[in-house]
Amino acid sequence: MNHTIAEALAFCEDVKENNLVKLARSKGVMMGVAPTYLSLQAVKKHSHGLIVASQDCHYEDHGAYTSNVSIPMLKEIGVDWTIIGHSERRTYEHETSFICNRKIKALVANNCHAIYCVGETEKEYDANLTKDVVREQMLVGLMNISKEDISKIVIAYEPVWSIGTGKNASSEIAQDICSYIRSIIKELYGQVAASKVLILYGGSVKPNNIHQYMEQPDVDGALVGGASLKSESFKELLENI
């Protein structure tokens, strides 16, 4: 819940002036942002090559779901990427993996992309339950998703205990869990699908540590929070990959 429409547009102009999309492409990086619902249309119009994603969506096309936004509403303004199951929604809105599954199925049915977030709390991490939690989130979240549709889904591993706390997981932990996630995809969809699905790490990713994460063989990218709010740090992230 950051950036007014004016602030989001100022970010877009900075992206343009600093040629950040060109820089990203020169490094083979897909770069995108996920602004608030209110800023989505304005950012989409002035994205200058950025992928634009929503932070959530509803699984129904329309109906009595006050305060929610449907996939057809997002598609009408050209937005076909959506983050699903972010840890803050799981924590504050009590979103379950089953609800995430309904949203993911609705997105792929509408030929849209989902960035599906999985990850454990600090209590679960301390109890050595990380892989159990991630496995449940993966199996339920991807329930009844076909082999053809898995290509529309990006998985983001975000340990809840490292988001906004400054306690980022080590690159070894990130690699271990992202590798485990890839093994689950292989189990469900086969080796070819597992090699193609993009897996991101998210959790206190900053310009000074992004390179060590990107060096890991099973970490394909980053889901960045605070460090993505200013174009200057966004540029640093790209430069340091």
List keywords for this structure.
241 residues, alpha/beta, TIM Barrel, seven-stranded parallel β-sheet, 12 helices, globular
Overview of the structural elements:
This protein has 241 residues and is α/β, with parallel strands linked by helices. Helices cover 46% and strands 11% of the residues. It has 12 helices and 7 strands. It has helices spanning 5-17, 20-26, 37-45, 71-76, 87-92, 97-109, 122-126, 130-141, 171-189, 191-196, 210-214, 231-239; strands at 32-33, 51-54, 81-84, 113-118, 153-157, 199-201, 221-222. The protein has a 7-stranded parallel beta sheet.
How many structural domains does the protein architecture include?
1
Q: Which strand order does the major sheet show? A: 1-2-3-4-5-6-7
Question: Can you tell me the CATH topology?
Answer: TIM Barrel
CATH class wording: Alpha Beta
Mean pLDDT across the residues is 96
**How far is it from the N-terminal to the C-terminal residue, by CA?**
27 Å
Strand proportion, as a percent range, falls in 5-15%
Give the count of helical stretches: 12
